[in-house]
Amino acid sequence: MNYKAQRQLTGLALSLIIASLLLLAGCNIPFLPRQEIDSFPMDNELIETMEVEGILYTLVVNPQAAGNPDAPAAIWVPSSAYQRGSYEVYTEFLPEPEEHLEVASAEPAIDDTLAPAAPGEISQDELAAAVLSREEELKDNLKVNLMLRRRALLFPSRISIIRPEIVTLLSLELEDKLPLRVNETRDPQLLQQGRLLLNRSEITKRAQKWLQNQESPTPFQFIIFLDSSPGRNFQFYTCTWIDAQTGNRVATFTFRANLEGRLLRPLVPENPVPLQNLINSTSWWCKIRSRQEADNYLLEAGHRSDLDYGRKLTVFRKAVPIKDPRSHDRLGFLFREALGVVNVVDFFAADSSLAQAQTPLSTTFKSAWAVAMPAEESEKSPAAAVIPAE
Length: 390
Fold this sequence. Notes:
Blueprint: H1 2-26, H2 35-38, E1 49-52, E2 55-61, E3 74-78, H3 79-84, H4 124-141, E4 150-154, H5 158-162, H6 164-177, E5 180-184, H7 188-194, H8 200-212, E6 222-230, E7 234-243, E8 249-258, H9 273-280, E9 284-290, E10 296-299, E11 312-323, E12 330-348, E13 352-357, E14 367-372, H10 377-380, E15 386-387
Parallel strand pairs: 4-5, 4-6, 12-15
Antiparallel strand pairs: 1-2, 1-8, 2-3, 6-7, 7-8, 9-10, 9-14, 10-13, 11-12, 11-14, 12-13
């Protein structure tokens, strides 16, 4: 009897509790959680970010775009400014060309002296020859000083090997939006090792080790690689940049694909000003080799690096690594023993050129380094310091 009474009391208590909860749920009590204020709408728009030299940037709507049709629709601002909710247009110093770009019109103007004073005084053949001569003169006087394209080596990883279409699209966009030239490795050992590289930190260590083992500077200013990570609605791909001088990670940005594997364009962020500044502030160099002809030299760079006629490059005999005295990590390298200056005079092959010394170089050599440095580069980083010849 006692057991039966206990069950009845328990059932009654549970019924009262359930009834009380139902009554409370129907009341508008401020402290009672309600579904309409607990469920927050999820925004499908992903925040675009990139990290350059330790600073995280966020892509935001340009507040000046509404009143200025020439202004970019979106700009990159430091994420700290984005989180505060107030920011102005973010701009950085971009190195100006040494000489102004002079562009000739499609149809060169004809001097008054070339026009006939009266019918019959000059033939059409003579006039055509004069116009052609004028066109050649304009071409010779056309001064084009493009920003040099830095070179980047695509370090192999599992993603870049099994998804070559991603590499192709990414390279095209990088070269279109940035003064950069992307090169893929042909080293069979690196390709074989890359098939097993998935993790970002592991790829970074392998690339840094490869750089440490190079006895001289590589022909590349940056090492870039790809890794991926799964998400709920997207597959994310991260492009990481390593400075080829120091081996430090200097930039990252992310693009994505849907669950079916279709890439969402663009892969490279729009208007990537922070990446442009990073590239333009990095020294440019290439190998230079002597030829049999006196004062003529072969440069291992050409049109693909945006070299132009008359480009001046400083020649250094050595590139000496700089290492941390405690950790022995490489901090960069020094170009030593300046030999003189050469000018680009001709081009050949896919990416090679010929140079001529302005004045005879101070000594003969089989191979050396031709260097172009941004203004004040030697003051920014020891990795780009220059020591004159002793």
